[in-house]
Amino acid sequence: MRYDILNCAEAIMKKGRIFNVERYAIHDGPGIRTTVFFKGCPLRCWWCHNPEGQNSLPDLIYRESRCIGCDECTKTCPRKALSQTSLHVTLSRKHCNVCGICTRICPSEALSIAGKETSLEEIIAEIEKDRTFYDESEGGATFSGGEPLLQPDFLNAILHECNERDIHTTLDTSGYASGGVIDKIKDKVDLFLYDIKTMDEASHKKYTGVSNKPILENLERLAKNGGSIMISLPIIPHVNDDEANILRTGEFIASLASVAHVSLLPYHRAGIDKYKNLGRPYKLKRILSPSDQEMAAIKEKLEAFGLKVKIGER
Fold this sequence. Notes:
alpha/beta; 2 domains; Alpha-Beta Plaits
């Protein structure tokens, strides 16, 4: 029996904030998927490659490489947050209120906004567009971010609708939320892509801004519930790649039930330009990606715990 949005006033009014919907995604769970990126995250990981998803409110993005110096944006900004300098513009984020007027007039799309409010109906309509691909590839919908658990009611409503439509659901999460939030959504998620950053709490606080205690507790909670879980381990040189942390991580994961496999995700620098576009500093400029040999050694250490480990796959 189909869950009818039209008969549910609460669902009609349910809105959330996202910053992207990626169709035909093949790295966010099994098969061909539609990935919905939620805006807002309680973590501030130094290596985050989606910094535009961190703040809950919309962000103004300025791509200098696209700017043609036409000066149209500086003429229309009501708060004078933009000024012409040489062939480009200077943005005063202190004065900008992200009204979006400049983005609508920019002919080269050098200015854009990350984050918009959207409804349950709009998201479900986007997910439904690729229904044929899901059926053929055993794919479905993935919810990523940012952190989807930061918008639990909106996430829960989408999951409910996907369940009623027999669309496979995957949640890509840091696991940083209350136990009550986890309990609310756990039975509506077919697969958890669950991140573990580091086992050391002090290190976790330094590099993400939050404690890892609720993350590890929620992972144990999900494992005891019998949920299908794939662990993602970002490997960040000089942050979490030391032998002590790898061994503690392997021991912890091996103690859990329901873990299908572990994915090792080598650090990359692909998101650095995004920080510049957002006017934010990037804290790991001098860190290089781990070598193939280093990744293989970490894989071998984890496999010694009886774990199925892949490199660069989820």
